[in-house]
Predict the 3D structure of the following.
Amino acid sequence: MKKMIMLGIFMSASIAGEVAADCETETILSVDALSTLLSGNTVCAQKANGDQWQEYHEPSGKIFDYKKGPNDPVDPTKEMGTWEITDRGAICYSYGGGNFIYCYSVHKVPEQELYQFCTSPLPATGNALDVTASILEGNNGCGFN
C-alpha cells in the first residue's frame, strides 16, 4: 500500500513538473480549436494543490458540475454557471450569478492528452499555470468524485 501511495506521489510530482514548464505562446489554442475542444465535453481539472473537479461544457454556454452523475439521488449533476470563449481566445467562466469570473488561456501540452488553463488570457502578460486538465467526450464523470 505504501509503495502505491509513494508511486502516485512520485508520478504526480513528475507530471506536474513537466506540465508546469508550459503556458507558452506557441502552445495556445485558437478560438476554433478551443470551441471544438470544450463544447459538449467534460473538463477533468486538477490544481497543483490536489483540488479536482469535473465540468460539462454544454454547447448553450452553461456549465454543469458532474458530481456523481445526473441520476445520483444524493449528489446529482448540477448547473454551476456559464462559459464563453472571447474573441481573443480566452475561456471565461462565470459562477455565482457573475460574482466569480475566471478567464484563462488554454494550452495543449505537447505529446500528451493534457491541457493547461493559464491565469492570464494573454501570453505576453506573464501566464501562470493554474489548472491542468484532460477532456472527456460528452457529459461524463472523470473518475475522481
Remarks:
- The two ends are 21 Å apart (CA to CA).
- The chain is about 20% helix and 35% strand.
- Residues 2-137 form a domain with the Lipocalin fold (CATH 2.40.128).
- Helices lie at 2-19, 31-38.
